[in-house]
User: Which sequence fits this backbone?
């Protein structure tokens, strides 16, 4: 079957290479920010948990280094580009980026509305990022800008682990092992990874609460459907917009 050119904004903004070019500044900002706000005597900020999970995976094979997680993002998207049957251009299309930013801001609005319904649960979640309310946290004692850097990293690596890799892996199991249909496998993968996304957020210093679990599960499902419908770049940007603004107003 001949390759099909991507003609519309909706198609091109989901293409792997355009997602990579769009997200590359966020990867650079996060990498520079973790070094810029490093604690005295250290070389970078503490890694977010999703990034540490990737690091532990590579340690199983004897590979270590801060450079590995961003290389995973780049490698996966370049690999998806190489495997794509569509005639996607390799070169960046900067004219797409402003619209992708606007779209991400629009998609972040429902997350803020969801957060307003679970304000207490979300307040605890933000305390785990920024400190306060007596919670000893990962970034306690760091400047507020470090919280913004941390939020960027969460948008990138949590979407990588739970949406780009997680949904693909669970979908493969549901469709390949359990012989689920395409729709069932896709929806099942979104919902199961959303549960994992919620449980993942209890790996920090805060204890389990059902409101907080429900908030993160619903947010994970929302981001999962957004990822399937609009691609990795928009999902990451939406997650990052929400986290950055939530940290800013907390």
Assistant:
């Amino acid at each position: 079957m001949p390759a099909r050119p991507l003609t519309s904004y909706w198609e091109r903004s989901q293409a792997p290479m355009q997602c990579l070019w769009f997200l590359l500044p966020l990867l650079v900002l996060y990498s520079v920010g973790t070094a810029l706000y490093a604690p005295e005597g250290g070389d970078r900020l503490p890694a977010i948990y999703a990034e540490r999970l990737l690091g532990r995976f590579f340690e199983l094979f004897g590979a270590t280094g801060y450079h590995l997680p961003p290389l995973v993002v780049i490698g996966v998207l370049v690999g998806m580009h190489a495997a794509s049957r569509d005639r996607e251009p390799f070169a960046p299309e900067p004219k797409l980026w402003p619209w992708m930013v606007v779209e991400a801001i629009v998609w972040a609005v429902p997350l803020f509305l969801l957060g307003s319904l679970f304000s207490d649960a979300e307040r605890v979640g933000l305390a785990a990022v920024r400190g306060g309310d007596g919670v000893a946290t990962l970034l306690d004692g760091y400047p507020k800008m470090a919280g913004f850097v941390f939020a960027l990293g969460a948008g990138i690596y949590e979407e990588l682990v739970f949406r780009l890799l997680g949904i693909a892996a669970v979908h493969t199991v549901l469709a390949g092992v359990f012989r689920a249909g395409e729709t069932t496998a896709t929806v099942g993968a979104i919902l199961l990874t959303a549960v994992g996304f919620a449980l993942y957020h209890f790996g920090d210093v805060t204890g389990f609460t059902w409101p907080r679990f429900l908030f993160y599960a619903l947010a994970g499902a929302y981001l999962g459907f957004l990822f399937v419908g609009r691609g990795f770049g928009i999902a990451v940007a939406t997650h990052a917009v929400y986290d950055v603004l939530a940290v800013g107003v907390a």
